[in-house]
Amino acid sequence: MYGRPHFIFSDIAVCNLKRSPFRTAGLISIVALLAFMLFGGSLISCSLFNGADGLAKRLGADILIVPKGYDQKIEGILLRGEPSAFFMDAAWLGKIAHFEGVRAVSPQLLIASLNASCCSMPVQLIGFDQETDFIVEPWIKTALPGRLSDGEIIIGGAISGGAGSKLEFFDREYTVVAKMENTGSGFDASVFMTMESARTAAEDFIARGGNLTLPDNAISALSIMLNEDSSPIGTTKAMNEHFGYGNSGIVVVPAKEIVSNVSGNLRALVTIIVALAAILWLLSILILAIAFSVILNERKREFGILRSLGATRRKLASLVFLESGIVSLFGGIAGVFLSALLILPFRTYIRDTINMPYMQPSVIALIGLTAGSLILSFVAGPIASLISSAKIRKSDIIDVVRDGEL
Amino acid sequence: MMLEALEISKEYKRGDRPFFAVDGVSLSIDKGEFICIVGRSGSGKTTLLNMLTGLLTPDSGKIAFDGVAYDRLGDDELSLLRNTRLGYIMQGRGVLRNFTVLQNTILPRALFKRAEDPEAKAISLLDRVGIRHLADQLPARLSGGELRRVSIARALLSTPDLLIADEPTGDLDEETAAEILSLFRSVAEEGTGVLMVTHDLDATSLADRTLVMQSGRLRERA
Q1: Would the CB atoms of B82 and A310 count as touching at under 8 Å?
Q2: What is the CA radius of gyration of chain B?
Q3: Residue B15: its pLDDT value, please?
Q4: Which of A143, A213, A348, B55 has the lowest CB atom count within 10 Å?
């Protein structure tokens, strides 16, 4: 009839928070912002690292050779899945295969699909040579029952569909036989097929009025694996000297350079994100500490009354501590939830905006990130309230009573 | 004697000038005794009560409750004494705005857990002071007199040995003030000592003794 019969100490904190909704909402918002940044920042950082890691693992080549002027294009394909088509003479395959230090060389034929029934965006069609391939097949063997036939395709993790489904490119239907796991790199938006299928797709494209010239015996790129005692940089230099850099019509690119460029950019970006999160964490604690201090002055009267009723100094301090803990708990949960709501579904948009390999962490890692963000948010309030709690514990509260005109 | 103060003093500063808010006051009160202290504003009455309740430490002198000196008690013990054996009705509207009348009344029990459920007693006390029907209301909806009654009910919750009241009838109409004084008288007759500070000389009519506070000093009224 008259509410809860057992009114306990923690109820004082809960009542105070519930019946001062604007003050409580303000404090929760500060912690929520902190949690939002902590979770969002760490999630994006983690996804970038995953993306770079996935790219480094996926890019099994030591050196890439592409037509002159297309070194940026191949980077776009690998990092961002920006479809492109370019060609060079397949005769380069023989020249490179016998170059000193080269252990294996495999050609790829790249065709850009401007539209496809499968996708909301253009995809990269990659024809690869199954005889010599060491890049694509190692990653699909577990999913691919046998050799890929003409008209069969393997799709990247970001492409909708699965084994057995059909996709259509330039009015020709292809059968999906396997799907790759997400890597966070451009491979996720790529479709892998035999060299013959890729050539057919290109011919279909041209036949439908597509603006493309496909020379006979054309390939787009060569992926090179070196002997263990050969260095990518040294071999790149030797190739450039041998074939005449700038005059040969090709560009030799150490593949690791692409990854290390990514890693370098990534380190800078993640450093900024981590620094911002740390600054925000400290700033939030400072803002909360100031807020608690101001609130403490406003609550002198309340503390004076509680003291007169028998509240010990320790109890008053723990009341402030408890209230800040509750605020932090709700703020932390709200911030992480909002952050997850905004970031998790928009990974494609984020990847496109950042222009770097991006792959969200596993569920276990996500749980870890959530727990970490919640813990850091949860401790922010109590840490911020330490000064106010210490003030209460040290002060002779009757001065508070006198000041409060009780 | 239940509460005994011996030569207690408290000094404050106004600007650079020190002054004694309470200057060598001795006082004793026994169970069932009703004592009034009258005096002008600023004469040191509230400071004296704050020292007697252990909220403020005197600069000199001794205070003891049932023979136990305050200076031998720590914060926990003094707080427990206030919670269980002293009922303090502070000057002004000493209720918490975020809590209902009933919650305000049972607040002392939320601070120190005890086995028994305080609600039944709180309701009966609210009934005794005439505001049972307001138990679920927040203080913002109550008048000054009603708020004062909440403080009184709360102070009586633990059946204290001593009830200390600072200007309990200060801003009340005559009728309400008379009801409250009558309540104090009956509380004293039930065995609880009552020490009341007031401006109102008429309010002293029900007291066993009346003391006068002037410039920090206390004397018997002639």
Answers
A1: yes
A2: 17
A3: 79
A4: A213
Contact present, A282 and A290 (Cβ < 8 Å)? no
Higher model confidence: residue A56 or residue A324?
A324
H or E element that contains A79: helix A71-80
Per-residue pLDDT, averaged over A362-388, amounts to: 87
Q: Which residues in chain A have their CB less than 8 angstroms from residue B84's CB? A: 310
* CA dist A393 → A92, A309, A327, B111 (Å): 81, 16, 21, 16
The residues with which A123 forms a beta bridge, in sequence order, are A113
Distance from the Cα of A6 to chain B's closest Cα (Å) equals 7
For the packed helices A313-343 and A255-298, what is the interaxial angle rounded to 10 degrees?
140
Write down the residue that tokens 């923690």 correspond to.
A10
pLDDT score, position A116: 53
The domain limits of chain A are 9-53+262-403, 63-229
Distance in angstroms (rounded) separating the CA atoms of residues B92 and B102: 19
User: Could you tell me how far CA A3 lies from the centroid of its own chain?
Assistant: 49
- ipTM of this complex: 0.91
**3-class SS letters over A4-32:** CCCCCHHHHHHHHHHCCHHHHHHHHHHHH
Per-residue pLDDT at A381: 83
- In terms of C-beta density within 10 A (0-12 exposed, 13-18 middle, 19 or more buried), how is residue A55 classed? buried
**pLDDT score for A404:** 38
d(CA A120, CA B167): 79
Q: What DSSP designation does B202 have?
A: G
Q: Which of B55, B109, B136 sits opposite A401 (nearest CB)?
A: B55
Q: B111, A406: Cβ pair inside 8 Å?
A: no
A149: contact with B, CB 8 A cutoff? no
DSSP-assigned states of every residue in A238-253: HHHHHHTTTTSSEEEE
Q: Note the pLDDT tens digit of each residue in B129-142.
A: 889 999 999 999 99
Q: Which of A317-331, A340-354, B51-65, B185-199 has the lowest mean pLDDT?
A: A340-354
Say what the pLDDT of residue A1 is. 44
- Which segments of A163-209 does DSSP mark as H helices, in order? 195-207
B2, HSE (Cβ side, Cα atoms, 13 Å): 20
Which pLDDT does position B191 carry in this prediction? Answer: 92
Taking CA–CA distances from A303, the nearest residue in chain B reads B96
Chain A residues with beta carbon closer than 8 angstroms to that of B109: 7
Residue of B nearest to A17 (CA): B98
Q: What values do phi and psi take at A5, rounded to 5?
A: -70, -40
Q: Assess A405–B contact: CB distance below 8 Å, yes or no.
A: yes
